[in-house]
Amino acid sequence: MPRPHTPGGGTAAAAESQLAQLLHAGPFHLALRTALAARGLPLQRVQHRLAARGIKVGVTSLSYWQQGARRPQRAESLKAVGALEQILELPVGSLTRLLLPAVARGEPGGPTARPYRTLLTAGEAVEQLLAELESPADGGLHTVGHHERVRIGAGRELRGRDSQQVVRAHRDGIDRYLAIHHGDPGCDAALVEVRAHENCRTGRVRRHPGTGVIVAELLFDARLRPGDTYVFGYGFEDGTGGPCGEYLRGFGYAGGHYLLQVRFDDAALPVRCRRFSQASATSPRGEVADLTPNGRHRAVHLVEPAVRRGILGIAWDWE
Fold first, then answer.
1. DSSP conformation class of 139
2. Could you tell me which residue, 140 or 113, shows the higher pLDDT?
3. How high is the mean pLDDT of the chain?
4. What angle do CA 161, 167, 141 make, to 5 degrees?
5. How far is Cα 112 from Cα 121, in angstroms, rounded to an integer?
6. Closest to 148 measured CA to CA, from 251, 259, 43, 51
7. At what angle are helices 43-52 and 59-67 packed, to 10 degrees?
8. Residue 248 near residue 260, CB atoms below 8 Å
9. What are the distances in angstroms from CA 259 to CA 143, 197, 306?
10. How many CB atoms lie within 10 A of CB 30?
């Protein structure tokens, strides 16, 4: 699931609630990244504090850990994880236990036994909001093409994102799409704005303050028959969360073309960007490849001609 930021009282409480949830359920890299954001500690400072304890871990390794590209496995790395719990003021063993197999944590079946979209987002919050909007398993639509533009602000925050989507109906009478937004730690769901751009209008909107999850109903201008295609555009204006270090999208089903473009403010440019994929939210990241920003527009992108079930995203380092 990413600037100097000091959250206010309500926002801080939401961030701590999300952190507690991730420390309980994982995965490790999301829990670590959320803890770093909640404490406002850049990786270089964390590295210095580890070094003061006699533990040598590079900034690159710390970055890989929080992005999910690698997991701590060696004895020195596991020692560093224990020290991170102290530095980040977390309960003893809270990060270390997330590196154990699910069964060893006393969770028979593990997280992979949960529905796919539960792994992908803020879990029960998404399920609850989708249920309130009477959502079927796939909404009756298949995505043919999706162009997504993400904007990162001067404070390193996710300012907003816009989507233009082409879908094909495989059931009769489909006239809506449910869009999900999951803000970064500290996101104030009440302040996130939903925008319907073309060929749709905003219907019901449900928000979950504790997790920064918003589900918005986008109503089409026509009822679709099986085989009909439809083009529509929408977006979310956020800017309420803490520093953003990645943007990812999950696909519950194989689909068509996907283009993700991330644009950075000139006042906050990352030092490194890379694309990645995952089979699921708890799987190691694969197909990691560096991306070269466009020199003029400070943007990077990835293109996937035919998406598979799983996760695609772009991650970046600020320092």
1. T
2. 140
3. 83
4. 105
5. 13
6. 259
7. 120
8. no
9. 12, 18, 10
10. 23
Q: How confident is the model at residue 108 (pLDDT cuts 50, 70, 90)?
A: very low
Residues 182 and 158: beta-carbon distance below 8 Å: no
Q: Which of 114-118, 181-185, 271-275, 277-281 has the highest mean pLDDT?
A: 271-275
242: number of Cβ within 10 Å: 27
Classify residue 169 as left (phi > 0), alpha (psi -120 to 50) or beta: beta
Q: Which residues pair with 260 in a beta bridge?
A: 148, 302
Average pLDDT over residues 150-178: 95
Q: How far apart are CA 319 and CA 309, in angstroms?
A: 32
pLDDT at position 123: 59
189 DSSP 8-state letter: G
Tokens of 281: 């939210």
Domain map (residue ranges) of the chain: 9-114
Contact 241, 157 (CB under 8 A): yes
User: Rounded to whole angstroms, how far apart are CA atoms 25 and 122?
Assistant: 11
Using DSSP's 3-state secondary structure scheme, residue 74 falls into coil
**Residue 164: predicted pLDDT:** 97
User: Residue 226, preceding bond cis, omega within 30 degrees?
Assistant: no
**Lowest mean pLDDT segment, chosen from 3-7, 23-27, 156-160:** 3-7
User: Considering all CA atoms of the chain, what is the largest pairwise distance in Å, rounded to the nearest integer?
Assistant: 65
First to last CA, the chain: 19
* pTM exceeds 0.90: no
